[in-house]
C-alpha cells in the first residue's frame, strides 16, 4: 500500500522518517561492512537488481481505494527469504523511492509520508518474514516440503495478514481517515491480495530452490536435501 501526503498529519510523517531511516542505515551497514561482502556478490550483480526492477513494475499494478490509498502486492517475504533481511530492506527501499518518484511524476505526492510507507511496506513485513523463517528453521524438521510451504506460501500469507492489521492500526493513529472507513474498506482489501502474494512468493521460491538453490540465502541444499 502507499499513503499519500494529504492523508497524514505532519508530526506523524516526521516520526515515520525518524523511525525508518536509522533502520535502513543499519541494514546498509550490516550488509556491506559487517557481513562477508563476497557472499552476496552474485546476488547483487544478477538476481537482486532484477527482482528489484520486477517489484517496481509489480507495485504499479495497484488498486486505488476510495479512501485515497492504493494497495498492491508487496514482495517483502520473497526478498527476505532469498537475500536476508539486510538486502531485502535495501532493495525494497530502492523500490519505494522509485515508486514515489513515479507517483510524483503523475501528480501524486507521498514524499512526506515516505517514512511511514517504509515502516508499513518494508520494516514490518521484512521483520515478520525474517522471524518466521528463523522459527521454522529452529523448531521444525529440515524438510524440503516444509521449507517450501511454510517459508514461502504460509510465510507470505501470515506476513501479509499481520501487515494488514498493523497498517490499519498505524492509519487509525496517524491519518485523517475515518476509523469505520479503514475497518470496513481498507482492512478487508488485504483479503484480496493475501492469496496472490502467497502463491507468487511460493511459486518463485520453488523455482529458485529447484533450479538455483545456491541463490537462496535461507536454503541449504546439503541440509534440506540430504539423504537419510
Q: pLDDT under 50 segments (min length 5)?
A: none
Strand content: under 5%
**Distance, first to last CA:** 45 Å
CATH class division: Mainly Alpha
- DSSP helix count? 7
CATH architecture: Orthogonal Bundle
Strand order of the largest sheet: 1-2
Return the string of H and E elements.
HHEEHHHHH
Q: How much helical structure, as a percent, in the residues?
A: over 70%
Q: What Rg, in angstroms, do the CA atoms define?
A: 18 Å
Oligomer: single chain
Mean pLDDT, to the nearest integer, reads 87
How would you describe what is shown here?
- The protein has a single domain (5-224), classed as Arp2/3 complex 21 kDa subunit ARPC3.
- It starts with 9 loop residues before the first helix and ends with a helix.
- It has 228 residues and is mostly helical.
- Helix content is 74%, strand content 2%.
- The chain is globular, with a radius of gyration of 18 Å.
- Helix 1 (10-34) crosses helix 4 (114-139), helix 3 (76-105) runs antiparallel to helix 4 and helix 3 packs parallel to helix 5.
- The chain has a two-stranded antiparallel sheet.
